[in-house]
Amino acid sequence: MDITLNNGVTMPAIGLGVFQSAPEETTAAVEAALNTGYRHIDTAAAYANEREVGQGIRNSGLNRSDLFIETKVWVSDYGYDQALHAWDKAVGKLGVEHLDLFILHQPAPDRFEKTIDAYKALEALLADGRVRAIGVSNFMPNHLKQLLDATTVIPAVNQVELHPYFTQPEVQAANAEHGIITQAWSPIGGITFYPGWGEDRRNVMEDPAIAAIGQVHGKTPAQVMLRWHLQQGRSAIPKSTNPNRIGENFDVFDFELSEADTAVINALDTGVRSGPDPDEAREERFAMVIPEA
After folding, report:
1. What is each CA distance from 64 to 51, 99, 140, 169, in whole angstroms?
2. CB 123: neighbour CB atoms within 10 A?
3. Which bin fits 196, alpha (ψ -120 to 50), beta or left (φ > 0)?
4. Is 47 tagged catalytic?
5. Using 50, 70 and 90 to split pLDDT, how confident is the model at 194?
6. Model confidence over 238-272: pLDDT tens digits?
7. What is the spatial distance between Cα 180 and Cα 38, in angstroms, rounded to a whole number?
8. 3-state helix vs strand vs coil in the chain, percent to 5
């Protein structure tokens, strides 16, 4: 199942995410996903596993033209020349000659002038064919407005935290207004049960309402949530290194949620973010240097 971006490029709706995937596990996960049928892989400079993603792609034996590779510029590489060089680093580690989607990882509002300059570099990379589409991640409506006021190319994608407990309706509406595809990271609520994010958080995978819908359709809670994203026109980036779960997360094209199912899931929104707030400056994290190789 593909989604057509606002510049006409098509993108597989489901991609494998590799956030927090250990480098030694990433190559095998990418291979397993591509063998399963995934054709979209989402990584980032800050994940420190672009090289392993590239190895997994090569091990699969698939043609580059059949794949959709997405990666992200980290904040320490913001600025025009720095972001151009971030492309050099990314394609070098991935072992490819172009990227299908290149996005800014954070709005970094404490240095937004550099954010704008980095996006202008992405526009230049798009213009000369080194990337097929450009976008952003974790941009709230106010960040989007500032970006659109200062640049020319409307982002094709905005990747944000989005799962049944945190649906970000204002972000989705702002994206839709400009023809920007909403792409969900933590699409099955993984962030709600990652260690270190607080033990008092409810695990969306254990929600009884989602489990009940799954029983009706003969599907797991994860499959129900991914189908929910797809039917609402979103891209979803589930993360796993477990081959069985990687397969399960891709087995979502043979059933359909009813309007009643969708309404039940939509009603679970708590409005509470589980990941970092994009409006907060995280100076130590933002200063992380992305190595050359």
Report:
1. 15, 10, 33, 35
2. 13
3. left
4. yes
5. low
6. 999 999 999 999 999 999 999 999 999 999 999 99
7. 22
8. 45, 15, 40
Tokens standing for residue 164:
């049944």
Confidence of residue 196 (pLDDT cuts 50, 70, 90): low
Comparing CA positions, the residue from 165, 168, 167, 210 lying closest to residue 189 is 165
Residue type, 128: D
Across 220-259, b (16+ Cβ under 10 Å) vs e yields bbbbbbbbbbbebebbbbbbbbeeebbbbbbebeeeebee
Do the Cβ atoms of 136 and 119 come closer than 8 Å? yes
**Which of 40, 35, 57, 41 shows the shortest CA–CA distance to 2?**
40
Which residue, 239, 193, 197, 246, is CA-closest to 22? 239
- Rounded to whole angstroms, how far apart are CA atoms 271 and 168? 7
Q: List the catalytic residue out of 38, 47, 78, 119.
A: 47
Tokens 């797991």 label which residue?
Answer: 220
How far is the C-alpha of 164 from the C-alpha of 91, rounded, in Å? 34
Cross-strand partners of 102? 71, 134
pTM summary value: 0.97
C-alpha to C-alpha distance for 17 and 222, rounded to whole angstroms: 14
Cβ neighbours around 22 below 10 Å, total: 12
Q: Render pLDDT for 32-71 as a digit per residue (tens, 0 to 9).
A: 999 999 999 999 999 999 999 999 999 999 999 999 999 9
